[in-house]
Amino acid sequence: MSLKPTLLGAALLAATLTVSLSAHASGTLKLNPPASTVNAGDAVVIDVSGVGFTDKVVGGGFSLNFNPAVLSLQSVSIDTVTWEFVSSAGLIDNASGTLSDVYFNSFKPVLPTGDFNVARLTFTAKADGTSPISLSASGGFPFANDQVELIDVSYLNASVQVGAVPEPASVGMMLSGLAGLVGWQRRRKAA
């Protein structure tokens, strides 16, 4: 008999913990700009920001994927004004096109909510093509609010279109063609 109340109490405690750890709040993590068109060799700067978070955010994390044949990730800068406590720029793997486990935390008296900055990503465009940039949740660093509840986060992705840089010979031919047109028009006007 004494075993049944203990099992019932344990079940209620487990249910309470599950409910308290489940997501009650929501928000979106997005990349800005959502689409870019650049030339090979150009720097591509993309900001990561939170939008529409309904609760005060203590911290969180993210990972992302990109096309390593088109882009190379040079740096990740966490916004340390917003996330002053502890943060990590994660692990960049340009060979596989991944950034894993970026995380950030704040313990300010007034925590971020609504819209806020998270990080700035700086890529280099390597070759022509298209690279989707796909955000995802960090396995080890979920978003949480000040009540130690998980926040349900949606992730908005971006893409970068890289065009080829014109060859010097092509540029030279174009300039000589323009010069020929100018000379032809001058001769025509003089005649």
Automatic annotation (TrEMBL):
This is Cohesin domain-containing protein. Residues 164-189 form the Ice-binding protein C-terminal domain. It comes from the Bacteria. NCBIfam families: PEP_CTERM (TIGR02595), VPLPA-CTERM (TIGR03370). Residues 31-145 form the Cohesin domain. Residues 1-25 form the signal peptide. Keywords: Signal. InterPro entries: CBM2/CBM3_carb-bd_dom_sf (IPR008965), Cohesin_dom (IPR002102), Ice-binding_C (IPR013424), VPLPA-CTERM (IPR022472). The keyword Signal applies.
